[in-house]
Fold this protein.
Amino acid sequence: MRELVVLGTASQAPTRHRNHNGYLLRWDGDGILFDPGEGTQRQLLVAGVSPWTFGRICITHLHGDHCLGLPGVVQRLSLDRVTHPVEVLYPSSGQVYIDRLLHASVFDEHVDVRQRPVVGSGVVEPGPPYALMAAMATGRMAMAATMSNSAATPALSDLPWANSSVLVSSKSTVGASESKK
């Protein structure tokens, strides 16, 4: 099953009907959580998404509406005693902020969080079943998930929405969210 679960699209300020950014890409049994803004832990609950369903969290850039939900999500993973490792991918330039977010409050750490800072553009995870790529887009890091059915991984410039914060593509479009900044 391939599905994009939109958890929020409100950008810097939530509204009564829109939460901060947050997107879960389900791809053939794998899950990637993109840009967990504030309230993502609750939005996962509302959407019926179990914390057990994703093994990667990708933060495209370190604006609050794209990362301030990380502490709650990690603490929920720990509370639920998720046993699989969870990778957190983020621009390496934001290391100090990631360190602060992952230790924003006192909690019993029962989840194996593996930090994976991304330096520059290129393939971060070659796949299969998808390739995870990073690129500088409009002055900040962006992540992309593309289907990799062949040995050749598409160039990031070949993807639709090349200037977006979150890039999600396959041979048929799954979905994307344009940055409103």
